[in-house]
C-alpha cells in the first residue's frame, strides 16, 4: 500500500485571520488563527486606525504566533469605502472587501444581529473562503487614480438629479393651487402675479417657499455650468478606453467618459458572462421541478450604468442602423408592441455592452458599426 506523506505547516506559515465589523463609532475585531480556535474579540474606538497595528501585534502574541505571521482580513463594503482596505494593505495585511448582499443567511428563524455576532460570522466565512470553499463575493477595489477620476461624472449625474428634483417640487407646489408658471427667468414675477382658481393671489407662505426653492434651483444651475461642459474639457488626454468609445457613432462624450472611467479603464473581466452580469443585464430563470418561469434581469450592479446602457441602446438603433445588433433587434422586436420593444431594448443593451467591452479590450469593432472619421 502506498504511503501518503502529509506536510505540516510551521508556526511561521500559520496566518492570523481578522474580521472587521465597522460602525460610525467603533470597530469590532474578531481574530483567530483557524476555525477551531476560540476567537479573540476586541473593540476599537476613537482613533481605531492608529490602534490597529498594536491590536494586531497583541493578537499574534495571544495566539502564540510569530511577529512576522501573515494577516488576512475582511470587512463588508459600505459607507467607509476603500480607505480602510488601502490602510490595511499599507500595514502588510492581505485584505478583501466583501459584498454584503452575497453573504449567506439562514431562513429558518428570525435573525439575531449584533456587531459581535456579525464579526464572528465574518471571521468564520473568511476561514472558509481561505480554505477554498466559496462563501461570498469579493468587491473589486479600484485604483486610487481611477476612483478619483470618476468623481467628475458622478458629480454631474448628482447635480442633474438635484435640478430635476427641485424643478418637480416647484411644479408640484404650484399644481396644488391650480397654477402653472413656466420655470423661466421671470419666474418670481409671474408667481407674484399668479391667481388661484378663485382669483385670489397665492398665499404669502407659499410665495416665500417658492422663492427659496427658486433660489436653490439657481444655485444648482450655477453649479451645473461648472460640471456640465463637454467631458473632454475636464481631463486631457482622454484615457484609451474613453477615446475608443468616442470613435463609435451613437456614443456621445458623456456616455464614453462614464463607461470608460467607471468600468472599462481599470476593471477586468474574464468572459462575456461576467461582463453581462456586472450590470445586472443577465436573465434570472426560476426552474424547480415542473415550474419554469423567467424572473427578469438580475438588476445587480450600478443602476445608473444600467440605465445609461439602455439609453445607449436606443441611440445605437438610431445612429447605427446597418449594424448587426440593430438588424437583430429589428428582426425580433421592432414589429411587436411596446412591451416587446421594451424587453428587446434591454436584450440589445446587454449585447451592446458585451460588444463595447470586446471593442475596447480586444479592438474588435461591432459588426457593421460605423466609426467616426478622424478629426
Structure characterization notes:
The chain has helices spanning 48-62, 83-90, 115-130, 144-149, 151-175, 187-193, 204-227, 240-246, 253-264, 272-278, 303-319, 324-334, 338-362; strands spanning 16-22, 26-32, 40-45, 71-76, 94-98, 283-288, 291-297. With 375 residues, the protein is of the alpha/beta class. The protein folds into three domains: 16-141, Nucleotidyltransferase, domain 5 (2-Layer Sandwich); 149-228, no CATH class; 235-362, no CATH class. The protein has a five-stranded mixed beta sheet. It has a two-stranded antiparallel ribbon with strand order 6-7. Strand 2 and strand 3 (40-45) form a beta hairpin. Helix 5 (151-175) packs antiparallel against helix 7 (204-227) and helix 8 packs across helix 13. The longest helix is centred in the middle third of the chain and has 25 residues, at 151-175. It starts with 15 loop residues before the first strand and ends in a 13-residue tail after the last helix.
- Total strand count, please? 7
Q: Specify the oligomeric state.
A: single chain
Give the CA-based shape: globular
How much helicity do the residues have?
40-55%
What structural class do the secondary elements suggest? alpha/beta
What does the main sheet amount to?
5 strands, mixed
What is the total domain count? Answer: 3
Count of helical segments? 13
Q: Roughly what fraction of the amino acids lie in strands?
A: 5-15%
Average pLDDT across residues?
Answer: 89
Please mark out the parts with pLDDT under 50 across 5 or more consecutive residues, or reply none. 1-11
N- to C-terminal separation?
A: 75 Å
Name the helix and strand elements from N-terminus to C-terminus, one letter apiece: EEEHEHEHHHHHHHHEEHHH
Gyration radius, rounded: 28 Å
Q: How would you write the strand order of the largest sheet?
A: 3-2-1-4-5
Amino acid at each position: 500500500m502506498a504511503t501518503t506523506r502529509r506536510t505540516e505547516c510551521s508556526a511561521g506559515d500559520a496566518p492570523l485571520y481578522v474580521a472587521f465589523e465597522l460602525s460610525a463609532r467603533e470597530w469590532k475585531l474578531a481574530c483567530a488563527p483557524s476555525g477551531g480556535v476560540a476567537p479573540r474579540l476586541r473593540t476599537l474606538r476613537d482613533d481605531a486606525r492608529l490602534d490597529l497595528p498594536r491590536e494586531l501585534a497583541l493578537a499574534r502574541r495571544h495566539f502564540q504566533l510569530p511577529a512576522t505571521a501573515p494577516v488576512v482580513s475582511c470587512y463588508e463594503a459600505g459607507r467607509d469605502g476603500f480607505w480602510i482596505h488601502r490602510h490595511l494593505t499599507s500595514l502588510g495585511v492581505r485584505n478583501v472587501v466583501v459584498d454584503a448582499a452575497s453573504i449567506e443567511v439562514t431562513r429558518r428563524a428570525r435573525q439575531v444581529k449584533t456587531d459581535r455576532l456579525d464579526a464572528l460570522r465574518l471571521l468564520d466565512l473568511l476561514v472558509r473562503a481561505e480554505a477554498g470553499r466559496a462563501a461570498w463575493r469579493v468587491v473589486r477595489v479600484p485604483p486610487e487614480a481611477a476612483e478619483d477620476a470618476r468623481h467628475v461624472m458622478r458629480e454631474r449625474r448628482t447635480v442633474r438629479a438635484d435640478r430635476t428634483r427641485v424643478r418637480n417640487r416647484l411644479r408640484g407646489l404650484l399644481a396644488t393651487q391650480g397654477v402653472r408658471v413656466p420655470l423661466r427667468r421671470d419666474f418670481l414675477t409671474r408667481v407674484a402675479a399668479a391667481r388661484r382658481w378663485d382669483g385670489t393671489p397665492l398665499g404669502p407662505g407659499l410665495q416665500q417657499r417658492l422663492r427659496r426653492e427658486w433660489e436653490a434651483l439657481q444655485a444648482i444651475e450655477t453649479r451645473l455650468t461648472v460640471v456640465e461642459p463637454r467631458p473632454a474639457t475636464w481631463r486631457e488626454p482622454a484615457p484609451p478606453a474613453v477615446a475608443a468609445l468616442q470613435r463609435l457613432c451613437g456614443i456621445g462624450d458623456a456616455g464614453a467618459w462614464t463607461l470608460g472611467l467607471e468600468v472599462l479603464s481599470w476593471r477586468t473581466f474574464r468572459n462575456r458572462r461576467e461582463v453581462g452580469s456586472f450590470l445586472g443585464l443577465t436573465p434570472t430563470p426560476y426552474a424547480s421541478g415542473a415550474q419554469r418561469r423567467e424572473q427578469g434581469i438580475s438588476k445587480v450592479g450600478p443602476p445608473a450604468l444600467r440605465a445609461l446602457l439602455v439609453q445607449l441602446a436606443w441611440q445605437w438603433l438610431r445612429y447605427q442602423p446597418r449594424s448587426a445588433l440593430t438588424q437583430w433587434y429589428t428582426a425580433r422586436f421592432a414589429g411587436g408592441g411596446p412591451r416587446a420593444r421594451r424587453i428587446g431594448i434591454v436584450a440589445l443593451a446587454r449585447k451592446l455592452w458585451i460588444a463595447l467591452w470586446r471593442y475596447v479590450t480586444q479592438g474588435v469593432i461591432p459588426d457593421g458599426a460605423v466609426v467616426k472619421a478622424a478629426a
